[in-house]
Design goal:
Layout (H helix, E strand, L loop, with lengths): L3 E10 L2 E11 L4 E5 L6 H8 L7 E6 L2 E2 L5 H8 L2 E5 L10 H11 L4 H14 L15 H14 L4 E5 L7 H18 L2 E6 L2 H7 L2 E6 L2 E7 H6 L4 H13 L6 E10 L2 E9 L5 H9 L4 E4 L4 E5 L1
Parallel strand pairs: 3-8, 3-9, 6-7, 7-8
Antiparallel strand pairs: 1-2, 1-4, 4-5, 9-10, 11-12, 12-14, 13-14
Helix pairs in contact: 3-4, 3-5, 4-5, 5-6, 9-10
Length: about 300
């Protein structure tokens, strides 16, 4: 049985359909990625996973329990097994690191001394023991996110939802946070759901991925399969954009020309692309109604 199961989940905000018939299954212990462009519906989806947003239709099932069938009291209890970290950390600025981590424990009724002892243990897990008495204003972005992760772990969750958790961080800090999350997944067996628009995050940490576009699942599969052979236009756009951004896919314009044909401007271009990304580039061009000829193994010629 899947630990998380979404069955035809729909969410409407008045006349706007933010999610439409989203069905997903996430296994216990997985690191599962949900990716899409801004406005695709990712953040709405993650808020539906813990019922901070109640779906308009469909079912959200967590560990065999359908959240829509729970009372408010039962729902609050169930949410204790689902922790969340955010892009902007959401720390309490008037509390130091150890008290931020201890805060959810105190809310649960744990005595102050015991809560602080547990909080110090979780700060050790995230490598911030020496910052226990530091206030958020004195911490770097990466350190703030580590405190937020320690606070999430203090609730002993089964599931950790990460909503753009590395978007505000520089690449080096992002890498260190992803390594920390991978270690936590291995050590505690916590299922991690990564909501992001960053393809490199999906590549570095996730086992499987779902691509969201216009509130629907455009594509789902293992990270390797989706990255090597994206089947959807949304997948091809995201992957090609990432390759271009990182310089992994240099597209060399070998020749370009335009001419007038009976009053209509026509153009042709010869491109040089790598074998690895040839299929993605060709499909990307065809999706835009461009005619594509393969000249040889390394060069594609397109006409429009």
């Amino acid at each position: 049985m899947a630990q998380i199961r979404l069955n035809k989940v729909t969410k409407r905000f008045e006349d706007v359909v933010a999610l439409k018939d989203v069905s997903l299954s996430i296994e216990q212990g997985e690191i599962f990625g949900i990716i899409g462009m801004s406005g695709a519906g990712k953040s709405t989806l993650v808020r539906c996973l813990n019922y901070l947003e109640k779906p308009t239709g469909g079912e959200v099932e967590i560990e065999g329990v359908i959240l829509g069938e729970l009372s408010e009291k039962e729902l609050r209890k169930k949410r204790k097994s689902i922790a969340m970290i955010f892009q902007h950390f959401n720390l309490l600025m008037q509390k130091n690191a150890v008290d931020n981590v201890a805060f959810p424990l105190r809310i649960q009724g744990v005595r102050k001394r015991e809560a602080r002892e547990q909080a110090l243990e979780y700060l050790k897990v995230v490598g911030l023991t020496e910052k226990a008495k530091a206030y958020p204003s004195k911490l770097s972005g990466g350190q703030k996110q580590r405190v937020a992760i320690a606070r999430a772990l203090a609730s002993k969750p089964h599931i950790l939802l990460c909503d753009e958790a590395t978007s505000a961080l520089d690449p080096q800090t992002t890498q260190s946070i992803l390594e920390l999350l991978k270690g936590i997944n291995r050590q505690y067996g916590i299922t991690i759901v990564m909501i992001t628009h960053q393809m490199e995050v999906i590549q570095k940490i996730c086992h499987r991925v779902a691509i969201i576009e216009n509130g629907e699942v455009a594509e789902e599969g293992t990270v390797e399969k989706v990255f090597r052979h994206p089947e959807s236009e949304a997948g091809r756009k995201l992957i090609l954009k990432e390759q271009l951004r990182e310089g992994k896919e240099p597209i060399n314009i070998l020749y370009a020309n335009t001419r007038d044909v009976n009053g209509t401007a026509k153009g042709e271009m010869i491109l040089g692309v790598s074998d690895q990304s040839k299929e993605s580039v060709i499909q990307y061009l065809r999706d835009r109604n461009l005619t594509v000829w393969e000249v040889d193994d390394d060069v594609d010629k397109t006409g429009a």
